[in-house]
Design a protein that fits this description.
heterodimer, A: about 140 residues, alpha+beta, 3 helices, about 40% strand, B: about 110 residues, mainly alpha, two-stranded antiparallel sheet, 5 helices, about 10% strand
Chain lengths: ~140, ~110
């Protein structure tokens, strides 16, 4: 489910547009679908579709997935490091502007940033969460 | 020619609107609380181990025309959003989004 969206995000991340973001992460493959492999060092990003409320759609051709992007970063003296917020800003620029141009079979799309907040990670880090809603309209 | 006199009582009207909004907000928050509790144990949602988290989900009035549904259990945020070591099992947000139309309908009826 939502393979198109996962593909679109990863394609975008690996494209030229995502070069700045890639350079900010510890490893070039610093963005992961759902969860990062064990031992991945901060900073990195994970994303996953948390909801696809079909009863909110206007018709069968529309889809409104909600995606949670989580940026994990280091702690410096108990505070979130500047880098995790910078990464978050860069991530937002990337996914808001061009993401679904890559999505196949959809003619129109729009995105809304629903929510953003910072959570202290129990593993001595910080996590910045961005919740995006995408409205996708299929080709008719 | 007879005169027609129209009287307008804004205070009474606004009071009725307020009461209706309050009643529907209360209804929505109660429903949301029940739906979140009922979602425990479903696929992709937290399992009930001690029942502490499930029982802690409560709705209540914060102030005029503002209700809140939430929990005071510390680890709930880790389950909802995940951490670098804990896989997330969101139970609050998906329930809201799934039943969004239902909540919306509560407010679309006649006053």
């Amino acid at each position: 489910m939502h393979l198109y969206l996962t593909e679109a995000i990863m394609t975008l991340y690996n494209s030229d547009d995502g070069a700045t973001l890639r350079s900010m992460l510890t490893t070039p493959n610093g963005m992961f679908d759902t969860e990062a492999p064990n031992g991945t060092k901060f900073p990195y990003i994970t994303f996953s579709v948390i909801s696809s409320p079909t009863d909110r759609t206007f018709c069968d051709n529309d889809d409104i997935p909600i995606v949670q992007f989580s940026c994990f970063g280091d702690t410096i003296k108990g505070q979130s490091s500047k880098s995790v917020l910078q990464i978050g800003t860069e991530l937002l620029n990337l996914i808001r502007n061009t993401l679904l141009a890559e999505a196949r079979g959809y003619t129109n799309w729009s995105s809304i940033l629903l929510n953003t907040f910072k959570v202290k990670d129990p593993d001595k880090g910080w996590m910045v969460v961005y919740e995006m809603e995408y409205k996708l309209e299929k080709t008719r | 020619m007879s005169k027609v006199r129209l009287s307008w009582y804004p205070a009474a009207f606004l009071s009725e609107v307020d009461r209706t909004i309050n009643r529907r907000l209360y209804q929505a928050s109660e429903e949301y609380e029940q739906l979140v509790q009922a979602s425990f144990g479903q696929a992709g949602k937290p399992k009930v181990v001690s029942g502490k988290l499930k029982e802690s989900i409560k709705s209540g009035k914060v102030r005029k025309n503002k209700y809140r549904v939430g929990t005071n259990v510390d680890y709930s945020r880790y389950l909802e959003y995940g951490t670098s070591r804990i896989h997330k099992l969101p139970f609050f947000r998906p329930t809201f989004y799934t039943y969004f139309s239902r909540f919306k309908r509560l407010f679309s009826g006649k006053f």
